[in-house]
Amino acid sequence: MMTIKRIMMFLLLAVSVNAQAATFYVLRHAEKASDGSKDPALTEQGYQRAANLAGMLANAGIKKVYASDYQRTQLTAGPLAAQLGIEVTSYDPRDLPGLKEQLLKEDVNAMIVGHSNTTPMLVHLLSGQSVTNLDEANFDFLFQVVRQGEHVVVNTLRSAPTRAHAGLTDWQPLNDHWFSGSLTFNMQLNGDVVGQSVHAFSQTDEYYQLHEKTTIEAYKIEADIRAEVSRSKLAPLSLTMTGAMGQPVNIDLHWQGQKVTGHSQMAREPFKPQGTVDIDATLKPGTTERTSLIMLAHLLPVSAEQPLLVNWFNGYDADQRLIDITYEGEEQITVPAGTFDTYKVQYSGGAPSQYFWIDKKQPKVVKIEVIKSPWSYELVEAIQE
């Protein structure tokens, strides 16, 4: 039986020997150091990833290596360029259309190292296809864009090391942590309150009913979101969204087991499908729904000894991805609603990754922070029914 590594190498070699096909390998830089600088170098794991990439792509017929003019991208591209005996060509990540035209004109196999916000867009420009957005925690995605005339194929590969995904996959929610009532959060941008989000929770004997209403006038956001999930494994039953998120939104999704059908209309990143997306998909067993899992972070059985691995479905754009949920310790925090003794949980890989602070005394979320982002939520009022 062929190993995953050998299968990936077979795929790489299969496209590289076809002289009529130009193949582009588009990726984000490897893991960067958290040193507070605007131009950090790589971490030890990042250097290892760059070396692994050089080995992975050594026989892919690459003639050009591109990287933006930052340490983290140049250092990621460097090992392969050195191995091939070619120079790293710098490009302006603010001019992706210009880079696309240059790549198509050269029409040779190339590796292009960019950033979490530029890599999906470049893949879209080269292929015309939609692609998943990258999270702060995603460093192992390697998009292979194979062009042969007007025919384009996009393969999603992974570089080593991949995320461990060592968490528990078969779990039950902590239903005794259920909170009936409402939580009102201040939404903050760079520490300034710009809006409010109210999360309401109710239940029946079989399922939980969730209602989120978020208002940010300055950004023309007035969203009304409703979801239902089963009390067993938080299996999704329905998701609706009306109002506006800068533009009108209209989401209506329903589940029958792992079968989800409906539609989603909202503004999305330019490398995503635009307008109304019809959804008719069969999801992997155990797949949860993104909005519900965020609102119900206090029900997840995560601990220092046992992280979780969850597959979730994003009804906004029909994206599916694996989420690592880890316990990050205990912390006393103060928010407008008071001072709470909390435990901290991280959702990693969710595009975006997020931190949740959960009240230990009366389980509920009291603070949410979007990692590497100026956005945060702080509890203002909790009303228990």
Automatic annotation (TrEMBL):
<dbReference type="Pfam" id="PF11306">
    <property type="entry name" value="DUF3108"/>
</dbReference>
<keyword id="KW-0732">Signal</keyword>
<dbReference type="InterPro" id="IPR029033">
    <property type="entry name" value="His_PPase_superfam"/>
</dbReference>
<protein>
    <submittedName>
        <fullName>Histidine phosphatase family protein</fullName>
    </submittedName>
</protein>
<dbReference type="Pfam" id="PF00300">
    <property type="entry name" value="His_Phos_1"/>
</dbReference>
<dbReference type="InterPro" id="IPR021457">
    <property type="entry name" value="DUF3108"/>
</dbReference>
<feature type="signal peptide">
    <location>
        <begin position="1"/>
        <end position="21"/>
    </location>
</feature>
<dbReference type="InterPro" id="IPR013078">
    <property type="entry name" value="His_Pase_superF_clade-1"/>
</dbReference>
